[in-house]
User: Which sequence fits this backbone?
């Protein structure tokens, strides 16, 4: 039943900066099935946003450059499409929700106009049709008095409502994939809960596939079916949601989960902290990017970067050391 | 970590209103009631967590305690001195004892000053040390916050976010303060770095017997670091209790909703529990709802809640709540959600 919608292989993106070449994404593979929600988790600078922007070719070139890779969407490679073709995909078949709803909405354009734009462009709606559909969309994302509020400008909406507008806009052309780039990071917890709840409801109604980028392992637990953990421009662990939290297998994932205080725990124990800092990405990586911060590091980690190795059905980890028993994994 | 019950800070009915001016002659047409009557005490050696959503007045409260804002009304006692009535010079001297750490480690350090000058500035301002002694003290402080003292002549841009926050902490510690207001000190940092800084706060508290007011919106981190927790909503404290009491036995409907909204890193949790999803947004602090401030979003609100502001009552020893309905048998989360969806 589940058919493959998007297949990304060997994606590499680099940026030329005055300080040198930044290796932001260093060979990322992932698949997305129809109707599935894939969580992409990582800290700032791990390449999670850049890899998604690369797929939609939203990286400014130069200074950015997609060096290698394929992104197959319905039999066509997004990275090889002409500008005209990719414009039809963007916003139409694959749409995006950005982190900061204040800076990604146009402040001098009414909400109604901004909502109508993709409808008229991608679906060829007339102004009348677009207006009617816009009202429907705003109602769908839970904005009261939708008809009146079309005339409003973004500053007249609260942060949570602006993010609802962004979601309405992303869903307006019935896309097959919605890429949500930290859509709740700028919001308060109670509003975040509202938005997550809304997206789960819309997912059931509309049935789109979602790529949910976040740094919050709590949020991703509430929404994703499958998770990719990224570090230093690589996917370092990939697992189904329950599997990841039950059996985190990369030292970084383990550290990340350990560094979160558990709201349920009664006692006060010292937080587990990962020493050091995320890597600077100026050098072409030839060793494991996490090796300098890793407790389990062995000589092999500094010589060779581990590929994603399967440890169970649907669970792959890029680590030479099997942390459960201390054995060393082989590439084969 | 409550060593004793000696009160260090006592805030009494603190109000901070910001005037709104309109028109050509800048007539005052109203005011933003950022903090509208809060009272609490902080004991020596403890950490009081102050949580709430953006715009609830938690930062304003913190800043008013350090006297960065002049309170509209109320008193702030440090030991036995009322900071509000202090004249400029005695207040300046008092600031040695009360320090602040800011949220944004990128904006709160002067980019043109070296670490030495940043950390030494309070020492120079109070004329405490000179020349070589300053360098020694700065190195000692850098060591204390686990920064390499060799970096003493570097500039802020050469450091990562976590390291910059350590510089801000070193600056706050330079005068040996008794009390530090920590205004969201970790929310701008990455998850793996947050844990490092929180551990540092806890170590320093033990080593130097510090008292913290820890302002944050991350409720799980607040539970981790605080001894007692106060929850703010629209300029008032709605509930205050020991940390385990407030997380396990919340009485105010807002606290319950806030706790249920915390993202939990466990997929199982979401299958077992129904979340309370609060509707709508926080009303404007220019014109807060009459009566109970939370009534416009509260699932339990009725006519009683419109009448007047509920009293901030001590329901159990040490557990304060401002709600008419707190004494009613607590309804379970499931019941609340069901009623809400009807």
Assistant:
């Amino acid at each position: 039943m589940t058919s493959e919608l998007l297949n990304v292989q060997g994606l590499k993106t680099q940026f030329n900066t005055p300080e040198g070449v930044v290796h932001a994404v260093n060979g990322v593979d992932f698949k997305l099935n129809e109707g599935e929600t894939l969580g992409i988790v990582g800290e700032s600078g791990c390449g999670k946003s850049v890899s998604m922007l690369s797929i939609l070719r939203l990286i400014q070139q130069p200074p950015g450059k997609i060096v290698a890779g394929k992104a197959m969407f319905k039999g066509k490679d997004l990275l090889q499409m002409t500008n005209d073709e990719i414009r039809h995909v963007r916003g139409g078949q694959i749409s995006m929700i950005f982190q900061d709803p204040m800076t990604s909405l146009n402040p001098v354009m009414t909400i109604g106009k901004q909502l109508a734009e993709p409808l008229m462009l991608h679906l060829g709606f007339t102004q009348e049709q677009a207006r009617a559909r816009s009202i429907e969309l705003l109602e769908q994302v839970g904005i009261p008095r939708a008809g009146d509020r079309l005339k409003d400008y973004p500053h007249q909406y609260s942060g949570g409502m602006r993010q609802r507008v962004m979601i309405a806009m992303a869903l307006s052309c019935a896309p097959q994939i919605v890429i949500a780039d930290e859509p709740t990071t700028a919001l308060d917890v109670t509003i975040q809960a509202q938005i997550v709840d809304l997206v789960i409801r819309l997912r059931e109604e509309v049935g789109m596939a979602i790529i949910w980028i976040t740094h919050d392992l709590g949020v991703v637990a509430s929404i994703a079916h499958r998770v990719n953990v990224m570090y230093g421009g690589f996917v370092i662990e990939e697992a189904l949601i329950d599997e990841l939290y039950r059996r985190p297998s990369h030292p970084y994932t383990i550290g990340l989960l350990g560094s979160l205080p558990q709201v349920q725990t009664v006692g006060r124990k010292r937080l587990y902290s990962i020493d050091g800092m995320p890597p600077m990405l100026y050098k072409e990586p030839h060793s494991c990017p996490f090796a300098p911060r890793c407790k389990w590091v062995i000589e092999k980690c500094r010589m060779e970067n581990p590929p994603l190795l399967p440890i169970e059905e649907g669970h792959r980890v890029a680590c030479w050391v099997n942390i459960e028993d201390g054995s060393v994994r082989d590439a084969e | 970590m409550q060593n004793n019950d000696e009160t260090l800070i006592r805030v009494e009915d603190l109000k901070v209103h910001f005037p709104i001016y309109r028109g050509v002659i800048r007539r005052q047409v109203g005011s933003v009631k950022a903090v509208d009557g809060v009272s609490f005490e902080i004991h020596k050696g403890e950490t009081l967590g102050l949580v709430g959503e953006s715009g609830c007045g938690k930062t304003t409260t913190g800043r008013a305690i350090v006297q960065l804002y002049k309170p509209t009304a109320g008193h702030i006692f440090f030991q036995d001195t009322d900071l509000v009535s202090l004249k400029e010079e005695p207040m300046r001297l008092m600031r040695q004892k009360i320090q602040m750490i800011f949220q944004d480690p990128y904006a709160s350090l002067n980019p043109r000053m070296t670490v030495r000058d940043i950390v030494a500035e309070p020492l120079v301002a109070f004329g405490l040390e000179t020349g070589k002694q300053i360098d020694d003290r700065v190195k000692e402080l850098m060591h204390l916050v686990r920064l390499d003292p060799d970096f003493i002549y570097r500039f802020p841009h050469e450091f990562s976010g976590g390291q910059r926050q350590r510089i801000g902490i070193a600056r706050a510690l330079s005068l040996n303060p008794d009390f530090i207001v920590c205004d969201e000190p970790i929310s701008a940092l990455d998850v793996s770095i947050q844990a490092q800084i929180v551990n540092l706060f806890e170590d320093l508290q033990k080593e130097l017997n510090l008292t913290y007011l820890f302002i944050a919106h991350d409720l799980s981190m607040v539970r981790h670091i605080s001894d007692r927790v106060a929850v703010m909503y629209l300029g008032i404290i709605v509930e205050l209790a020991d940390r385990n009491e407030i997380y396990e036995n919340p009485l105010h409907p807002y606290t319950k909703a806030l706790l249920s909204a915390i993202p939990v890193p466990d997929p199982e949790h979401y299958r077992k529990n129904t979340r309370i999803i609060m509707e709508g947004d926080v009303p404007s602090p220019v014109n807060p709802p009459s009566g109970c401030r939370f009534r416009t979003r509260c699932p339990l609100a009725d006519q009683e809640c419109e009448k007047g502001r509920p009293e901030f009552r001590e329901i159990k020893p040490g557990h304060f709540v401002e709600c008419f309905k707190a004494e009613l048998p607590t309804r379970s989360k499931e019941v609340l959600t069901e009623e809400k969806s009807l």
